[in-house]
Amino acid sequence: MRHWCFVCCVLLLAAIVGVGVGVPLAIMEDFIASPQERLTAVQKILREVPLVDGHNDLPWNIRKFVHNQIQDFNFSSDLRKVEPWSRSTWSHTDLLRLQEGMVGCQLWSAYVPCGAQHLDAVQLTLEQIDVIRRLSEKYSHALEFVTSSQEIVSAHRRGKIASMVGIEGGHSLGNSIAVLRMFYSLGARYLTLTHTCNTPWADCSSMDEPGQKTKISGLKEFGLRDFGKKVIKEMNRLGMVVDLSHVSVQTMKDALNESRAPVIFSHSSAHSICNSTRNVPDDILRLLSINGGLVMVNFYNYFITCNESASIGDVIDHINHIRSVAGVDHVGIGAGFDGINFTPRGLEDVSKYPNLFSKLIEDPRWSTEDLKKLAGKNFLRVFRRVEEVSWNFISLFLSLSPTLLSSFDFFSQKRMHVKIYIN
Ligand SMILES: *[C@@H]1O[C@H](CO)[C@@H](O)[C@H](O)[C@H]1NC(C)=O
Ligand SMILES: *[C@@H]1O[C@H](CO)[C@@H](O)[C@H](O)[C@H]1NC(C)=O
Ligand SMILES: *[C@@H]1O[C@H](CO)[C@@H](O)[C@H](O)[C@H]1NC(C)=O
Ligand SMILES: *[C@@H]1O[C@H](CO)[C@@H](O)[C@H](O)[C@H]1NC(C)=O
To answer: In the list 26, 146, 202, 397, which could disulfide-bond 162, CB 3.0-4.6 Å?
Structure first.
């Protein structure tokens, strides 16, 4: 009898340790000892799965430095040696370094400043989408402009870096759902609901700064208004990813309740490690896990350690924290290069992502499959789900009667109403 119990225990233990899902590479292949061997293992992973980075601000720097005149910009050159890039602490990206960093898909930010809100934000955003498209076209030997999860995978298989557009800030819509639809048709596949300014329909993260809610008299926190909920509904219908980096905690909660599809944080880290309002609190991480979404970890030192210096280990602390609260299916990478001016030691530019994976590969908690999820599988899962939700809308749409169909443009009628409360 006792012997039988012992056998059961051993079998149980073997099952817990050994079962396929998560045998850590460090245990399974303990020959991975030298830095070169670890790098080789990382390179194999990143050849199999595209490394997807959620946010890069190069397009804004192209505007600032060369006024979007891409004939004056050589993306194939080493920008560390070319003025004015070489002088800027905000420049971390060129083609050679993206290739060295084994980036498989870059979500480029079509960002315009909040100062353009209610002015020329729509025009400037169009110009930023234009520069991303022209750049992808001009360097098509290395980049491929993509708009779907399938295109990301196939571009990566062909050895190209998939280039996709994300719009950073709801102010870019000019309070028009029609503009949202047109951004989608130009290739934009995510919209960050706010940047650093509230829109008339969504609060941004500065509302969560101490004293902020009472400081601005008459400013009441509301999260997402009715129009904001319609924006999310239309994004779900189109197949556009809802991005909650930069929004207030109340907006996060409202959006998570509203969206039928998983959402992302394209470039945010963990609030319980560094209490910047740009980071994601634990209660939201738990909701995100239910939603099926993803936090893509930002590398900005001030979001990592809350001060100007940070190391790879500090970034890994955020990744592990998000993993332990939300789960390994809900963490990714969104460094924010070219939009930050203090980067961690060892993660100075887009060539350095393999350093991060080489360090994680030493950690027995991180199996090969886990590392693939972090690199790109999680983003691809979220994006596929967003696409599926959109197809479900299409089938719902087709099942509606013609009269209901024609009333489907109620968004544009609502616009009058929106105008009223903006004024
Ligand atoms: C861009 O830089 C690369 C690498 O330095 C060089 O080979 C190429 O000729 C340059 N292209 C132009 C148009 O100057
Ligand atoms: C973060 O924590 C520090 C110290 O605990 C506090 O002074 C600061 O107000 C907090 N910041 C935010 C944004 O909550
Ligand atoms: C969540 O969404 C549902 C359906 O849209 C709505 O009825 C409910 O009031 C929302 N809950 C909260 C807490 O906003
Ligand atoms: C920055 O924060 C980290 C982590 O909290 C700490 O170890 C380090 O000493 C801080 N550095 C500075 C310059 O304040």
So the answer is: 146
Domain membership flag for residue 408: no
In a domain, 16, yes or no: no
Top mutation candidate among 251, 254, 257 for ligand 3, by most atoms within 8 Å of CB: 257
Q: Which domain holds residue 266?
A: 27-401
Calpha distance 346→225 (Å, rounded)? 42
Pairwise CA distance, residues 200 & 362, whole Å:
47
Which ligand does the CA of 317 lie closest to? 4
251 within ligand 4 shell (Cβ under 6 A): no
User: 301-343, pLDDT tens digit by residue?
Assistant: 999 999 999 999 999 999 999 999 999 999 999 999 999 999 9
Q: Kindly report, residue by residue over 141-162, the tens digit of the pLDDT.
A: 999 999 999 999 999 999 999 9
Kindly report the average pLDDT of the chain as a whole number.
89
Model-level pTM?
A: 0.88
Q: Which residues lie with the beta carbon below 6 Å from any ligand 2 atom?
A: 209-210, 275, 277
Q: Is the pLDDT of residue 238 over 70?
A: yes
pLDDT above 70: percentage of residues in the chain: 84
**Number of the ligand 4 atom closest to the C-alpha atom of 308:** 13
Nearest to residue 110, comparing CAs of 177, 195, 205, 201? Answer: 195
Q: Compare 398 and 140 and report the one with higher pLDDT.
A: 140
**76 Cβ closer than 6 Å to some ligand 1 atom:** yes
Please report whether residue 389 resides in a domain: yes
* Interatomic CA distance for residues 324 and 272, integer angstroms: 12
CA dist 114 and 220 (Å) reads 20
